[in-house]
Amino acid sequence: MQTEQNYTPYWAGVAVAPVGIAAFFLSTTVGKYMSSIDLRYWGVISFTLFSFSLFYQANFTTQVSLNDIMFARFLQGFGVACFFLPLVQLSLGEIPPARYAHAAGIFNFIRILVGSGFGTSLSIELWSRLEIFHHARLTESLTIYRKQVTQFYDGLANVSANFSTDVANRVLDMQVEQQAFMLSTNDMSWLGAWLFLALIPFIFLCKRVKVSERKVVAH
């Protein structure tokens, strides 16, 4: 948003902030009723909400409004609220008290390593490579034989005679880059949405964990 859509840091923060609104207000409710519903179904609800929000986000264009971006993040907030508490209980709910500290340490280490370490690095790399792919494909279609390209150069020449061919090429390349990053973002959203749906059956490979209300509060 900041590098390609010219958002300031403040407005970029405003756009993504709604992801925490639903999680902030619903986390206590999820914790209250978590013991009455199979924890695996909380995971199904979470993954479904994540998938729905990513499908919605996958249709964005470079003209997407701030409200649409905020709404997509707001939907993801519901998924976050239904995700973390059940995840911890599914992972650590059956651990004996004597081994809980060791198990919690390993759990958080793996979660941070895979999510913040490998996950973030690989997703950024894939996002960049998809941008290169879309940039190349879009550039292939920009020839002097296309009417839109001719109109673009003529429009710049009419605006100012100081626009040289090199400047016009750079302006066009910046617009292509913006579109390529948008297409890359959409691809990542489609991929994430389908992956969340594909992972739902794997949730039921987890052992069912029964958690009492007192135990939920303690954790």
Molecular structure report:
This protein has 219 residues and is an all-alpha fold. The protein has a single domain (9-218), classed as MFS general substrate transporter like domains (Growth Hormone, Chain: A), CATH 1.20.1250.20. It is built from nine helices and no strands. The protein has helices at residues 9-16, 19-33, 39-57, 66-81, 84-92, 100-140, 147-159, 165-203, 213-218. α2 (19-33) packs parallel to α4, α3 (39-57) packs antiparallel against α4 (66-81) and α3 runs antiparallel to α8. The model is unreliable at 213-219 (pLDDT under 50).
What descriptors fit this protein?
219 residues, mainly alpha, Growth Hormone, Chain: A, 76% helix, 0% strand, elongated, disordered C terminus
Layout of strands and helices, then pairs:
Blueprint: H1 9-16, H2 19-33, H3 39-57, H4 66-81, H5 84-92, H6 100-140, H7 147-159, H8 165-203, H9 213-218
Helix pairs in contact: 2-4, 3-4, 3-5, 3-8, 6-8
